[in-house]
């Protein structure tokens, strides 16, 4: 292939990638009101245009990249049907190509790698089978051959995972600051993170940590829903949830609806932020209400 043919092929590839990503970026912009005008060339041109037009499209996508926060990308991609394997792979390729990568780029790449792995790996995959070699194999189409993960990093991440799995409920996970320690481990490796071996290690860690988190989150939500049902069977239809930033007489029906909405929200985002604290505190409030109701029932039978 001649240099001219190579440039034309690259131009065509860049344009096809922009066309693929444009609907997703447009939807992302509308979802979070990013106040970016639509890209005229990507909406009106379908054939491969000249270099200036392709650059205009690239600048528009770069503008959206800069305005999109990590949590917005995470929330959107986990709640939209547009985020298929091809779309996530294109997003990954786009972010991995950046010559200078910031902490925000690292966090986006980390999420996209986990998302790509989740879309590509079998849904029945057991935690014990998620080894570094397996993750390396799944990510090879986007990272190439990774090489050996530094032993010190691998051991540190395994230690954090082991401590997370030992937690019995979400409150323990948050109090232990395990999630924060995982983020610190990522920051400590600095620019080394963008080496394929490190990205494989952190993808495995983040994927397995996400599974731990979701299991505990669903455990808390199910405990709350079961507790609300038990309270209603005892004639309790409202309870004091001020400790969880709700009202003194919060209806059980409303709490049930909130828990159902949280299942969607927490699927998209997990951190040690305020919503998770509310979930933990709500479980404690429901358990306290159950204890009080059972105590009253015992006292009434004793009279």
What would your notes on this structure say?
By secondary structure, this protein is mostly helical. Among the domains are: 1-68, no CATH class; 215-302. 72% of the residues lie in helices and 1% in strands. The protein contains 13 helices and two strands, in the order H-H-H-H-H-H-H-H-H-H-H-E-E-H-H. The chain has helices at residues 3-31, 40-44, 51-67, 70-77, 85-96, 103-120, 132-143, 151-166, 170-175, 178-188, 196-233, 252-268, 274-302, and strands at residues 238-239, 250-251. It has a two-stranded antiparallel sheet. The chain is elongated and about 95 Å long. The relative contact order is 0.08.
What descriptors fit this protein?
303 residues; mainly alpha; two-stranded antiparallel ribbon; 13 helices; 1% strand
Write the layout of secondary structure elements.
Blueprint: H1 3-31, H2 40-44, H3 51-67, H4 70-77, H5 85-96, H6 103-120, H7 132-143, H8 151-166, H9 170-175, H10 178-188, H11 196-233, E1 238-239, E2 250-251, H12 252-268, H13 274-302
Antiparallel strand pairs: 1-2
Helix pairs in contact: 1-3, 5-6, 6-11, 7-11, 8-10, 8-11, 11-12, 11-13
* Spatial extent as radius of gyration: 24 Å
- N to C succession of SSEs: HHHHHHHHHHHEEHH
What is the helix tally?
13
Share of β-strand residues:
under 5%
Structural class: mainly alpha
Strand order of the largest sheet: 1-2
Low-confidence stretches: none
In helices, the fraction of residues equals over 70%
* Terminal CA distance: 94 Å
């Amino acid at each position: 292939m001649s240099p001219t043919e190579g440039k034309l092929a690259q131009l065509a590839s860049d344009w096809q990638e922009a066309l693929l990503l444009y609907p997703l970026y447009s939807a992302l912009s509308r979802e979070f009101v990013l106040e970016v005008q639509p890209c005229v060339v990507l909406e009106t041109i379908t054939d491969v245009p000249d270099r200036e037009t392709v650059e205009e499209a690239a600048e528009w996508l770069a503008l959206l990249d800069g305005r999109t926060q990590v949590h917005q990308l995470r929330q959107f991609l986990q709640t939209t049907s547009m985020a298929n394997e091809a779309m996530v792979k294109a997003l990954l390729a786009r972010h991995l190509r950046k010559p200078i990568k910031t902490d925000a780029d690292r966090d986006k790449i980390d999420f996209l790698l986990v998302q790509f792995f989740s879309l590509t790996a079998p849904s029945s995959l057991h935690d014990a089978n998620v080894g570094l070699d397996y993750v390396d194999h799944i990510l090879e189409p986007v990272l190439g051959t990774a090489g050996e993960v530094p032993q010190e990093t691998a051991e540190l991440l395994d230690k954090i995972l082991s401590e997370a799995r030992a937690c019995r409920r979400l409150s323990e996970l948050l109090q232990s600051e395990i999630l924060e320690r995982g983020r610190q481990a990522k920051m400590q490796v600095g620019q080394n993170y963008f080496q394929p071996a490190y990205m494989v290690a952190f993808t495995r860690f983040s994927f397995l940590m996400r599974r731990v988190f979701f299991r505990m989150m669903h455990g808390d939500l199910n405990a709350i829903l079961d507790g609300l049902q038990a309270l209603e069977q005892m004639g309790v239809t409202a309870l004091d949830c001020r400790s969880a930033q709700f009202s003194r007489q919060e209806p059980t029906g409303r709490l049930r609806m909130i828990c159902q909405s949280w299942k969607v929200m927490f699927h998209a985002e997990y951190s040690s932020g305020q919503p998770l604290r509310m979930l933990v505190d709500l479980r404690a409030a429901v358990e306290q209400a159950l204890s009080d109701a059972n105590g009253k029932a015992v006292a009434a039978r004793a009279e």
